[in-house]
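Structural prep section.
Before we set up the soaks we want a predicted structure of the protein with zinc ion in place, mainly to decide which crystallisation condition to try first. Input record follows.
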Amino acid sequence: MYAELNTKSDYCMECGYDGEIQIKEDDDGKLIWVCPHCGNTDQDKMSVARRTCGYIGTQFWNQGRTQEIKERVLHL
Ligand SMILES: [Zn+2]
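Run finished without errors. Recording the tokens verbatim:
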């Protein structure tokens, strides 16, 4: 099994950065994840290992779902 499951192991699929993804607040006060290496903020293109820790994780995934629904509506 993978030993790194217990450590902070975020991953950016955009540039291949393997480390700690930063959390920032955007203009609307929403919490967003930002790759410190390439500035990627696309949640679909990064893997955040800390999604279960507290309200930040919850808000992150709720926003992701909201975005998904919005995109589906646009495609119809
Ligand atoms: Zn990156």
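Observations: The chain is about 30% helix and 20% strand.
Flagged for discussion at group meeting.
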